[in-house]
Amino acid sequence: MESQIRYRGRAVTGEDIAFVRSLIAEHPGESRRALSQELCRAWGWVQQNGALRDMVCRGLLLELSRGGHIELPAPMYSRPVPFRKKPPRIEMDQ
């Protein structure tokens, strides 16, 4: 019996993983976001308002990648870490 991965109530089978691998291979230069949007369209993952369930799909892709089932492209963008200055010292009357 084939083991299944469950993500947010969806059973992800070996066929699904093979489909994701082929999708990544067909779009080698695409970002993770573009790949997740393409996967949402292929699987019909949309919200009630018709918008793609992009963030849910990205979470699935990340989980599959961390589990060693697929290899995602490297992130194209990284958020800069905000530089936080110490507030100035306030002199108080003693």
Strand content: 5-15%
* CA-based gyration radius: 20 Å
| Helix percent band | 40-55%
Shape: elongated
Query: Which strand order spans the largest sheet, edge to edge or round the barrel?
Result: 1-2
Enumerate how many helices there are, as a single number.
3
Nearest-integer average pLDDT: 87
For the record, give the distance between the C-alpha atoms at the N and C termini, rounded to a whole number: 76 Å
Number of strands: 2
Strand/helix succession: EEHHH
Low-confidence stretches: none
Return the structural class.
mainly alpha
Largest sheet: 2 strands, antiparallel
How would you characterize the overall build of this protein?
The protein has 94 residues and is mainly alpha-helical. Helices cover 40% and strands 6% of the residues. The chain has 3 helices and 2 strands. It has a two-stranded antiparallel ribbon. Strand 1 (5-7) and strand 2 (10-12) form a beta hairpin. Helix 2 crosses helix 3 (54-66). The relative contact order is 0.16. The model has no long low-confidence stretch (mean pLDDT 87).
